[in-house]
Design brief:
With 356 residues, this protein is an alpha/beta fold. Helix content is 28%, strand content 23%. It is globular and about 55 Å long. The termini are far apart.
């Protein structure tokens, strides 16, 4: 049994996004013994490229499972094209309006109109995706832990329904979000030094409830494990890792990890990475970390603090930055594809003025 996992490039300038295609099973010619999954679809312009990629490299027009990790535009928009142009077996997506009266559709909720324009567009995008799935007869499943594919190889580690509903209750109105963003932009940035022994990443990073609601999925295939994280932050990752630990997981067993939220330093910290990847100071390569980052996403996507932290724990980091990345095992060779170069270790990293 083998697998191929493709991270497609999203964002030509500074806006990053996620679009991932994967297949696993017997990868010799013959679709019947393979499972094809799409996890997020990037912006709308990525959708056609994602569809063509599956056709060209997986040799099929059928996707067994489409996963919308959360309804941000850089994750969900391209999925409309996938559902419209391909045969889809299941759509895994959360339906926030079923779990929160404040997020009910249209005029049903006065509070919804007080949300930021970005969040309103995200909810509208999710409603469009649900409507298209129902129009085309695609079954919709809300991916709450511990749900998994019928073959058991692709499992939802988070969120639970209770955690998801808690996060929905924490979504802020537009005024509060605007004030918080203004405060972040006002912070001065300076550079600090790091070494392989000295880490400045902290456990204080915070991201939005919307990001923490991301579906976190585990692929467990032929003795190898891979983690898909969406835009999840520290509390969401902690819960997912706790479920791994409950079934005997040891740090460093992951063959590959998606770096959360395009490599933002607000989404991971040393304690989470120690539990997932192992302690710092590992000399041997344990696995690979893949990050979806736009061509001009630096210094935010990915943060040098974050990529350094993965490297310290034995995980080489690869960023899309305008090209497709492939992680594979027991898969046929692809003509014309060459090995990607990992990101280097950086001895200077960005730090907010008020960070310790």
């Amino acid at each position: 049994m083998g697998f191929e996992i493709d991270f497609l490039p999203v964002g030509e300038e500074s806006q990053s996004g996620d679009a991932i295609a994967l297949r696993y099973g017997d990868l010799t010619p013959g679709r019947e013994n393979q499972r094809v999954i799409v996890v997020d679809g990037g912006f709308a312009d990525v959708g056609p490229r994602l569809v063509q990629h599956v056709k060209d490299y997986y040799h099929t027009n059928r996707v067994d499972i489409v996963v919308s990790t959360h309804p941000d535009q850089d994750h969900i928009s391209g999925l409309l094209v996938v559902l419209d142009e391909m045969e889809v077996g299941q759509l895994w997506m959360h339906l926030p309006w079923k779990h929160s009266e404040d997020l009910a559709s249209g005029s049903k909720s006065a509070r919804r109109s007080a949300l930021s324009e970005t969040l309103q567009k995200s909810l509208a995008g999710a409603e469009d995706l649900e409507a298209l799935a129902r129009k085309k007869g695609v079954p919709i499943v809300e991916p709450f832990s511990p749900f998994s594919s019928d073959d058991g190889y692709f499992t939802v580690l988070g969120p639970t329904i209770d955690f998801y509903e808690q996060l929905l209750s924490e979504i802020e109105p537009q005024q509060a979000i605007g004030a918080r963003i203004a405060a972040l932009l006002a912070k001065a940035i300076r550079f600090v030094y790091e070494t392989l022994q000295h880490e400045t990443l902290t456990d204080d990073g915070q991201t939005s409830p919307q990001n923490n609601s991301s579906t976190i999925c585990l692929l467990h295939c032929d003795g190898r494990m891979g983690l898909f994280t969406g835009d999840a932050g520290i509390p969401a990752l902690e819960q997912a890792i706790g479920r791994l630990e409950a079934i005997g997981y040891s740090p460093g067993q992951m063959s590959f990890v998606q770096v959360p939220h395009h490599g933002s330093r607000r989404n991971v910290g040393p304690n989470v990475l120690d539990r997932l990847l192992g302690p710092t100071g590992r000399q041997e390569t344990q696995g690979e970390a893949l990050v979806c980052a736009a061509r001009k996403g630096e210094p935010k996507h990915p943060s040098k603090k974050v990529t350094n932290a993965f490297l310290r724990r034995g995980y080489k980091v690869y960023a899309t930055r305008g090209r497709c990345l492939l992680n594979h095992h027991a898969a046929p060779p692809r003509l014309g594809w060459t090995a990607a170069q990992p990101l280097p270790f950086y001895d200077q990293v960005e730090q907010d003025e008020d960070e310790t």
